[in-house]
Amino acid sequence: MRRTIGNSGIEVNAIGLGCMGLTAFYGKPVEEQDGIALIHEAMERGVDHFDTAEMYGPHTNETLLGKALKGRREKVVLATKFGIVAPAHTGSKGALDGSAENCRRAVEGSLRRLQTDYIDLYYLHRLDPETPIEETVGAMARLVEEGKIRAIGLSEVSADSLRRAAKVHPIAAVQSEYSIFTRAIEETLFPALEELNTSLVAYSPLGRGMLAGAYQNGTRPEADDWRSVSLPRFEEENLNANRALADEVISLAGQKDVSASQLALAWVLAQNERIVTIPGTTKLANLISNLGAYSVDLTGEDLERLAPLAAKVAGSRYSDFGMKLVDA
Q1: What is the CATH number of domain 2-206+269-295?
Q2: Cβ count within 10 A of residue 201
Q3: For burial by CB atoms within 10 Å, which of 36, 72, 136, 255 has the most?
Q4: How far apart are CA 186 and CA 174, in angstroms?
Q5: Confidence of residue 87 (pLDDT cuts 50, 70, 90)
């Protein structure tokens, strides 16, 4: 299933790979050789859209991806992000920097770590409230003119910010969390995406594992996993409630003889033809299973059955601090 990213002319297979978990946030990083092997296997199976960011590590995720893609760069669409200069969940002062100066500094570092002379899709990771979006996008537009990036993306912005940005330069994609469990942007952002011919790159389409059937038997993320310490949906009371909702997805998947992850990904792709998605995994078996979503057909009855779940999810996506940085 091929889809074009906004107005950029860049085509990708609809299911890509979010690389964050290989080195950051979800417990112990994978061994370098294992991460490289996974990326190579993904490419062999048709994955051609790889997503990373400066702050994943920081820097280690880009470095890993650069090593994995050495000699294979032209076969993939490479996306990375800038603008978070300290882990956002720490609340540390100066965590966001969308200035023209930081844009220039960041892209040069990313190009070096990724071992490439251009980035296909370059995002502002979070809106910097101290820097007008027009200034940030103007700096990114200059990178397009110089050939350092091919297309501009924004992450977790509001419809208003997207429209303001698009007056400076076309915005190829907005990256936001979107899944059976997370649908608020349908009312707020989707009309602007349609109006501006901008794609949605859906991250965490598996509800950070819950929609793939993880944590159903009383288990929870390990102590060194960001989900267990910073994400309200994984707090014990909320997690119990969300397990029951995930059971609905698992049950329907069983009736259709597909995996829960395949059902969840097929749901995302069925919502709009301008959506592509970047589920993350560190395991080849999960990656192979995810790609099976292309073969899943959802009926109108299936979609109606899943529709009420998002409104029942317990807990917000991020901490109070993190929620201030989305829909900005």
Answers
A1: 3.20.20.100
A2: 26
A3: 136
A4: 13
A5: low
Domain boundaries, the chain: 2-206+269-295
What does the alpha-carbon distance between residue 63 and residue 58 come to, in Å, rounded to a whole number?
10
Q: Residue 151: beta bridge partners?
A: 121
The SS3 of residue 15 is: strand
Given pLDDT bands bounded at 50, 70 and 90, which one contains residue 90? Answer: very low
Beta carbons within 10 angstroms of residue 260's beta carbon: 25
Q: What is the length of the chain?
A: 328
Q: What is the pLDDT of residue 86?
A: 65
Task: Give the 3-state secondary structure percentages of the chain, helix then strand then coil, rounded to 5.
Answer: 45, 15, 35
Total Cβ atoms within 10 A of residue 128: 23
Whether the Cβ atoms of residue 96 and residue 325 lie closer than 8 Å to each other: yes
From the list 26, 56, 122, 215, the catalytic residue is 56
Three-state DSSP class for 152?
A: strand
Which DSSP symbol is given to 52?
-
Q: Is 178 tagged catalytic?
A: no
Phi-psi region of 258 (alpha: psi -120 to 50; beta: other; left: phi over 0): beta
Rounded to two decimals, the pTM is 0.96
Angle (deg, nearest 10), helices 284-291 and 32-44 = 20
Largest CA distance in the chain: 54
